[in-house]
């Protein structure tokens, strides 16, 4: 084993260790809560699903690349490798979709009752479970379309004559690029916009709440302002982490495709970046008593007390 493979293998091993320990710890934490209370909140269900998806990404993509970096031989044939890549694409799509659902659900929780979100509030974990199940079915189908089309194109090009084959390849390449953009790039971009927008909305809501509590006595106002500051930091950290990793991953994938996978270093850097979000996600979601959840409860109590005063 040469030094560069050893170095990359150590990096993969560190990512896998941190990611697996963090996700297992956090999943155990929520399972203990469910065991004690015998019920699960919609927000907890989303977080548990995100943890499981990230754990599956690390367990599959991370472990395989770690074993390869340390000199273990590939145990895939052509068919099993295509299946493995298909499963990884489904896991990645579900990770982005669940992260988007988490951000949107949190802004729904803390939004005022007269906001545009009042009619789409999730009333039970069944609503969340239905949405997640629909996402699984959708991405299982979507991620199967492009490989199926590529296999059909390959068989068609083999059977065509030489003069017609070159035209077919050019036309199908354009169709392939269009399919890739429509099925993979556009949904990821849409989810990224939704995450950024929902996080910005949460910051605006927190700022407006800060303006409303200025008339409360100083110690309560100080406590509220402290929670708002910590919640804003938490939101910025999560959004910056996701967007930074997603942007770097998109750039590295584009460069890797441009060089046709010929750069060894670029391929390994792409894998390292792809494993960063599943590894760092448990750190951002390490405790349910994070500032965002505290300020959410504070806002809900504030709205309830305001409504009771109006009723009286």
Question: How is this structure best described in words?
Answer:
It is a single chain. The longest helix has 51 residues, at 162-212. The chain has 9 helices and no strands. The chain starts with a helix and ends with a helix. It is mainly alpha-helical and 312 residues long.
List descriptors.
0% strand; mainly alpha
How helical, in percent, are the residues? over 70%
Order of helices and strands: HHHHHHHHH
Please, how many helices? 9
Classify the beta-strand content into a percent band.
Answer: under 5%
Estimate the global geometry from the Cα principal axes: globular
User: Which structural class fits the helix and strand makeup?
Assistant: mainly alpha
Task: Tally the beta strands.
Answer: 0
Largest sheet: none
Low-confidence stretches: 155-172, 307-312
Radius of gyration: 23 Å
| Average predicted confidence as pLDDT | 75
Distance between the termini: 76 Å
Brief account:
The protein is built from nine helices and no strands. The chain is an all-alpha fold.
What's the layout of helices and strands?
Layout: H1 3-37, H2 42-69, H3 78-110, H4 125-159, H5 162-212, H6 218-258, H7 264-274, H8 276-284, H9 291-311
Helix pairs in contact: 1-2, 1-8, 2-3, 2-4, 2-8, 3-4, 3-5, 4-5, 5-6, 6-7, 6-8, 6-9
């Amino acid at each position: 084993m040469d030094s560069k493979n050893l170095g990359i293998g150590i990096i993969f091993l560190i990512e896998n260790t941190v990611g697996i320990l963090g996700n297992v710890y956090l999943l155990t934490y929520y399972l203990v809560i469910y065991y004690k209370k015998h019920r699960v909140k919609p927000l907890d269900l989303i977080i548990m699903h995100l943890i499981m998806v990230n754990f599956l990404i690390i367990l599959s993509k991370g472990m395989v690349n770690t074993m390869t970096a340390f000199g273990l031989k590939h145990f895939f044939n052509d068919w099993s490798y295509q299946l493995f890549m298909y499963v990884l694409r489904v896991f990645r799509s579900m990770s982005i979709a669940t992260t988007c659902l988490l951000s949107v659900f949190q802004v729904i929780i803390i939004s005022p009752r007269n906001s545009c979100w009042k009619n789409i509030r999730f009333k039970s974990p069944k609503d969340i479970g239905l949405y997640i199940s629909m996402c699984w079915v959708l991405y299982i189908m979507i991620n199967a379309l492009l490989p199926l089309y590529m296999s059909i194109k390959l068989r068609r090009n083999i059977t065509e004559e030489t003069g017609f084959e070159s035209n077919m390849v050019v036309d199908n390449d354009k169709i392939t690029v269009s399919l890739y953009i429509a099925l993979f790039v556009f949904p990821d971009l849409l989810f990224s916009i939704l995450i950024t927008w929902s996080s910005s909305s949460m910051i605006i809501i927190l700022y407006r709440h800060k303006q409303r509590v200025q008339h409360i006595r100083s110690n309560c106002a100080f406590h509220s302002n402290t929670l708002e500051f910590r919640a804003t930091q938490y939101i910025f950290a999560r959004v910056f982490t996701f967007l930074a990793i997603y942007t770097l991953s998109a750039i590295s994938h584009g460069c890797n495709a441009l060089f046709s996978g010929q750069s060894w270093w670029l391929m390994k850097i792409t894998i390292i970046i792809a494993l960063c979000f599943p590894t760092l996600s448990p750190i951002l979601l390490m405790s349910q008593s994070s500032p965002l959840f505290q300020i959410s409860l504070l806002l809900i109590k504030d709205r309830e007390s305001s409504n009771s005063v109006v009723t009286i």
